[in-house]
Amino acid sequence: MAAVPTDSGSRPAAGARFFCTAGRGLEPFLMREVRARLAATQVEYISGKVFFTTCSDLNMLKKLKSAERLFLLIKKQFPLNVSSVSKGKILSEIQRLINDDPENWLNAISTWKNLLELDAKKDKLFQRAANPPKRKVEENDIINAKKLKTEQLQELQESGECLLEKQTEEETQEQGDFFTEREKSQEAFQNDVVKAADAKNQKDLTFRVSCRCSGAIAKTFTAQEVGRITGIALMKQFGWKADLRNPNLEIFIHLNDIYSVVGIPVFRIPLASRAYIKTAGLRSTIAWALASLAEIQAGAFVLDPMCGLGTILLEAAKEWPDVYYVGADVSDSQLLGACDNLKAAGLKNKIELLQVSVIDLPLPSESVDIIISDIPFGKKFKLGEDIKSILQEMERVLHVGGAIVLLLSEEHHRRLQDGEQSSIPLNSKDSHTGEPSIKKCLKPRGKTGTSETVSSSLEASSQECLDKTPPFGSLVPVECHKVSLGRTDAFICKYRKLHSLGR
Prior knowledge:
Layout: E1 16-21, H1 27-38, E2 41-46, E3 49-54, H2 58-61, E4 69-77, H3 87-99, H4 102-130, H5 139-144, H6 150-175, H7 177-198, E5 206-213, H8 216-220, H9 223-238, E6 241-242, E7 249-255, E8 260-265, H10 284-293, E9 301-304, H11 311-319, E10 324-329, H12 332-345, E11 351-355, E12 368-374, H13 387-397, E13 398-409, H14 410-417, H15 457-468, E14 475-484, E15 489-497
Parallel strand pairs: 5-6, 5-7, 9-10, 9-12, 10-11, 12-13
Antiparallel strand pairs: 1-3, 1-4, 2-3, 4-8, 7-8, 13-15, 14-15
């Protein structure tokens, strides 16, 4: 794998430069999303990160669903040389991340401030629009309105406010305290930034450094040491004050054998932490990726026959609301958790829950447009050879042309490879609908300043899955991605039904 080019956070006039962290294997989903949702350009990736340029405001950036965290880019450059140099020279290299281009740092801080300050102003304008000032009532108007006394009007107003407060309190309690705490944390973060932005010079900023080190650099320095070195350099260069508990600004540094990346977290709360999910089940980014791969259209009938806590249906219904969703599960406890999640997300009337077995669905044949499901493979909920009978029942209820998107363990994926071979050939032109041209930022840039290298690694990985996964029954594989679930890997696989079972 080639080295990363130097990218000193330069921002074209058309927009600012950002990067998002993503779970391993989700990079192609995130690349598609930033292009579609943010009209992003200069989209590039390195393992676990996607870089892009966009003019979108924070309101749009907040809507990213396949990203873990969002950062404003300060620097992206070659890895530090630690193989044959002294520890003192490595220290100098770390300090040069700050000292080589201080103007770039100041420009990045200004961009960051402007983003959050503008977002805070929009929030205030929205609140004013939602709560317009009450018109002053003239004395003649009061007389004409059944001659109510001022005291009576105040009493009515107070009683109405009490009722509103009570209703609001009940709704907040029903949705869970986590939602309120999340908003308070983000609001406090933005208020701190706005206060800092009001200052004429950036010396009033407080900061802390978060550092991740891996590879050769981790054998020489700990993350804490790199953070301390960087912090001292920032204080000397810009006069900022360190504050480890409640800083205005956080600096994120990731150093490894492939690249050195420096950025500013745009939000204190990770994008992957959904306020509308009360009880977490499947990782929200994985759930959204499954739903996005299904290509849901308005008016469709979407089924999750093993819905668990309903995470996939929640993610789908939030993004594609004009759809009929049904979740099924055989477990009482899982359905109760799913019901709580739907209530907290305000989607109780959007998603119907059924307690049924996945191998005996009470649905007519060929009645479902899309099936999306996480096939259980943990210690608590585990399936063995039943995977084939499960797929057969899904195949039965799915109409011709419909799609199935599954999250499969490596074992389940291997079992399906041994499935019954179909005589229907898979059209190679339609077999892969992934990124046609994925730009990597692991090779030096050309004269145009953007990477023109077409990546083959993600496409090859997806195609390899397709080559190893034969058709099963009337279902043929369309797209496959290997993704990380933390301690284990899994496959997101999409199948399409090409003909009726009777044929």
